[in-house]
Amino acid sequence: MTASSEPADRLAAFGNQLVDVHLWLREELARLRSGLDALLSGTGERPRELRAHCLAFCSALTRHHTAEDRGVFPALAEAHPELRPVLDELAHDHVQVEETLVRLQALLDGLPAASAAPLGPEEARRVSGELDGLIALVESHFTYEEKKLVGALNALSVPLPEDFALRDLTGR
User: What is the pLDDT of residues 19-43, one digit of tens each?
Assistant: First the structure.
């Protein structure tokens, strides 16, 4: 079977692209968790590197969700009006995720420099708790989104925003 460059063939994989992006974001979130665990145990990343990793992850996740809110969800709502309640719920999740990202970034920005004293137990608990909450929220969101949207996305026949697939970051 030969590969076709027809637009319909290219568009048929949007649901698969969603899963690919979610896999990459899950991997990055796991790396962030690992980096924080190493920092808290005193064996890993310096706070500056952890903050930079968090900022890169937060930026990628925000770009992906913004592309969904501004381009993907309106296209899906047009093609599949029955999905509107699901899309509204997912858009609400995006707001909650963004609020959590802002809180996490603020906590990481407040970490002491590598030469300063290690994190105190209360500070470590707050950062860990915020990251654990983000992980749970993102995993629940991704799982629900994949379950509800992959089929509809694969059937979609309109172009979607480039940031939806995060190709420049994931290489996929």
Answer: 988 999 999 899 888 888 887 777 7
CA 149 distance to own-chain centroid: 16
Rounded-to-integer distance, Cα 22 and Cα 19, Å: 5
Name the H helices within the chain: 7-11, 14-41, 47-67, 73-79, 84-109, 121-155, 167-170
pLDDT at position 37: 85
Q: pLDDT below 70 — which residues of the chain?
A: 1-12, 44-47, 112-119, 159-172
Helix axes 121-155, 84-109, angle to 10 degrees: 150
Predicted TM-score (pTM) of the model is: 0.82
Residues recorded for the chain? 172
Contact criterion met (CB below 8 Å) for 62 and 98? yes
Supply 82's token pair.
């029955």
